[in-house]
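# step 3/5: fold
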Amino acid sequence: MSLPLPGPMSLVPFVSVETMMRIVLEQGVERILVDLAAYIEEDFLRWEQFDKTPRVAAHSPEGVIELMPASDGRSYGFKYVNGHPRNIRTGRQTVTAFGVLADVETGYPVLLTEMTILTALRTAATSAVVAKHLAPKGAKVMAMIGNGAQSEFQCLAFKAICGIDTVRLYDIDGKATEKAARNLAGKGLTVVPCASAEQAIEGAQIITTCTADKQYATILGDNMVGSGVHINAIGGDCPGKTELHRDILARSEIFVEYPPQTRIEGEIQQLAPDHPVTEIWQVMAGKAPGRRDGTQITLFDSVGFATEDFSALRYLRDILASRQDLQMLDLLADPDDPRDLFGMIERYGKAVEAA
């Protein structure tokens, strides 16, 4: 006697790390970054339709574990993500993630996916699509300070979306810079390894900072930053963790995703709670100015927001629609009678005994 099979409504599409890598290779990294950026910008343009909340965070001395939910009233998405800088010492990722997209009408999940790779892609796509609105016109050179797991994605996103052709790399760990330079070889960029942060920003119109230490840090000092640059600060993303000297913030026009979250987690946690900032969706929608002139310092104080993950989940769902090789997980109970969950267990037990 065969055991009862999962009911048709018990199965949820699952994207494993292996499947995600296959998708990236099939689609191409730069194509995915461009397409993801379009989804992210589309959702920023309908910002007011979203049910938004700051992420729910559990902090410890070792790191942070967060849940990031968002809904547009039709779909609901959330991401589980951690940030543990010390993980690198034991061969683990600093950041790992998985996520779910669900149907609001039924509450049933329609997708369960790895999001470690997907988060790296969506973070880079967000950085570049924002820079499209804020960076100096004709910018070709970016300094990439912090050459960890995110760095190559950032460089390729700025190439594909903003048109940069040169990246100047620096990390306090020279092996990280060697890794990034090796991975970016042959990708259509001029790659310049640098010996210091000061050297990396020489001639750069865009400066991206992406470091992991959970502490107040000064990756960029005030005297390092001249007029007319765009700063893409993505490493500061929780209370007590920053990268920029406070005086840089005072000289910059600051753009953020969601102020209630950024004021707690971003670079602006160093400033007064009422310090003026501009929400980036308003710039995209033409409701607020972006870069006004060639001398202005623009700063994207990016901490990552749940709508960006929602966009990534929505993008992934759409490209998976035509695939026939998806793994399906028996994730949801699907009894013959929705009211008889107990009976389903009993019937399964009898089938096991009979088998």
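# step 4/5: annotate
The chain has two domains: 8-117+308-340, 131-304.
# step 5/5: archive (pending)
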